[in-house]
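Run Thioesterase family protein through structure prediction, thanks.
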Amino acid sequence: MTMSLQVPTPLGDVRLEGDGPTFRSLMPPELCFQGIGFGGYSAAIAALAGFVQLPGRTLRSIHAVFTAPIEPGPLDVTANVLSAGRSCGMCEITVAQKGTPVLTALAWFVDPRMMNDREAPATQSLSFNSYDELPWVVEVAPFLKGLNLRAIDYPLTEDTFCDGQGRVALWAVPDAAASADRRAAEISGRLTDIMFFDAFLMDSGLRTEPAQTRMISLDLSVIWSTGHEAPAPTLLEADGRIDRQLATTQGTLRDTTGATRASATSQCRIFRA
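Sure, done. The structure for Thioesterase family protein is below.
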């Protein structure tokens, strides 16, 4: 029987159809930037496909490799379980378009009892209320509007973006994503984290480059520190290092208690005018 799954997130619904291990999905036109599909959304599709194949598990980590640009339109998704032990399972996911692989991912899923629901709260809570909003980012990439971004260390205008700083720090205060149960809320939070990381990790490197420089993500690796976490106000802090025509970026997500939610790395290819 064909399955149809739709997980709401602040950046839009992530959808899968199929009977496993083969699924169909879609790169919506509204989730594209300059005609190229948002890589964070395709990585979220891959994570969801693995989630379906390993029921009852929590997504612990994912390493997604972007192998070709994605256009708006249909996607073919294959999720093969490589390991399914009593406590841990690994899934390999391939996303293809028009017969060409555009993303390959390895994802670990674990028994929820192996992870804490939340780390112990930090001694000082964090607040996003006093920071400036970033309407210009939404003008450039409208699909990010559901994150409601607040700048800590992030340019307040597009014209001042290339200011030489090799880091970013900003809050996402996401619109509520309706979830029927705890497990659905958790995977919605995981997918949101993936997209938040992919959207802004590379900016830590781009800030050090001239305005005409372009950068694309070659991969994204995320590991979560806690279990059940629905989409919630989240602080991203990231640093970038340029190595000639490549960039290395790394960052963490923290919640309003100051506890670490997830960490990530990404390597990027630089194209200079």
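The longest helix spans residues 182-200.
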